Amino acid sequence: xxxxxxxxxxxxxxxxxxxxxxxxxxxxxxxxxxxxxxxxxxxxxxxxxxxxxxxxxxxxxxxxxxxxxxxxxxxxxxxxxxxxxxxxxxxxxxxxxxxxxxxxxxxxxxxxxxxxxxxxxxxxxxxxxxxxxxxxxxxxxxxxxxxxxxxxxxxxxxxxxxxxxxxxxxxxxxxxxxxxxxxxxxxxxxxxxxxxxxxxxxxxxxxxxxxxxxxxxxxxxxxxxxxxxxxxxxxxxxxxxxxxxxxxxxxxxxxxxxxxxxxxxxxxxxxxxxxxxxxxxxxxxxxxxxxxxxxxxxxxxxxxxxxxxxxxxxxxxxxxxxxxxxxxxxxxxxxxxxx
Length: 339
Ligand code: NAD
Ligand code: UD1
Known about the structure:
This is UDP-glucose 4-epimerase. By secondary structure, the protein is of the alpha/beta class. The protein contains eleven helices and 13 strands. It has helices spanning 12-23, 41-49, 63-72, 87-92, 94-114, 149-167, 201-209, 237-251, 270-281, 305-311, 319-332; strands at 3-7, 27-32, 55-57, 77-80, 119-125, 172-178, 180-182, 216-219, 231-232, 234-236, 256-262, 268-269, 287-290. Strands 3-2-1-4-5-6-11 form a seven-stranded parallel sheet, with helices on both faces. A two-stranded parallel ribbon has the order 7-10. Strand 1 (3-7), helix 1 (12-23) and strand 2 (27-32) form a beta-alpha-beta unit. It starts with a strand and ends in a 7-residue tail after the last helix. Bound molecules: nicotinamide-adenine-dinucleotide (NAD) and uridine-diphosphate-N-acetylglucosamine (UD1). Nicotinamide-adenine-dinucleotide is lined by residues 8, 10-14, 32-37, 59-61, 81-85, 100, 104, 123, 125, 178, 181.
């Protein structure tokens, strides 16, 4: 079976994808510098998979470190999750974001080219579409200049990989544009463990639910949506992980550029999410309204039919599954991997 290097494999989406790769019979290798992950995730992955997964500690920006797994293994493909992802932080530290995400990806792609590894799957984001002109978003929807350095790094890496594919036509470049990943593995052993106070909705909800935070502030109540709050396409992280496996099966050794939206196709408002979460915990989750958050898009959800038609992949988890699993993870691990 194919050996797949997973950069950022100790992180939230990476760890879930490693589990699904093992389940599907692939041999993943994790590469991570733990800048936003904890070593405690590795024994948890082992517990779920029933075997350990090889691990390299290293930084994608450091060529000698990036080369090690290629020198020591025959790598058939790379799923590239490693990167910094906090939108607000990227506004304050743009150079760190370009260095880590864009420069890091340059080093990785150089090493891949030099070692003859031509299968590249990249974690892109629906953020590349900016404020949509119309929903649902298809892969042909226009790419807009991003409203944060983080978003711009995703656009830049997409373009860089596409240009490389033109120059080295053996490359198979797959760009997966994620909508809003939430939830956790049903075992409750791995999940999202953000540092500090979460910026994203779901980890904020789970931390209020376990009493680590007091009350959710809903950002804005006068958006032009049915209930006045913003709409997103929340997708269970295990569905996202199986989306990577489906993309790998379809795109491995198929030269070209392959682009897929990974979403459910259904939009939920912030109020829908609060209601679903309240149901999962059996009482109303403390919440209040606050001002709009700068940079928020009003309504964003995917048309996932290309992934369905070409990859045979659809998201199967419901909103109830997402809230139940997110809560289960947080309840079992109130302080994340520090427990
Ligand atoms: P995460 O922070 O949990 O995972 C990223 C991992 O990469 C971490 O384990 C971190 O330690 C590692 N890493 C960062 N810089 C590195 C470097 N220079 N060298 C080696 N390892 C490094 O984030 P995630 O939510 O799992 O996201 C994974 C990818 O998906 C990211 O590229 C992110 O931008 C993208 N993405 C995430 C979302 C989301 O909502 N979570 C949405 C769209 C796209
Ligand atoms: C955010 C990023 C986006 C990134 C995505 C990754 C911004 C402006 N956008 O998107 O670039 O790709 O994360 O998943 O940061 N909300 C509240 N209260 C909270 C937290 C969130 O009401 O405490 C609302 C937000 O206003 C939004 C919705 O919940 O309407 C979802 O927010 P979030 O989880 O941060 O995701 P995005 O805004 O889609």
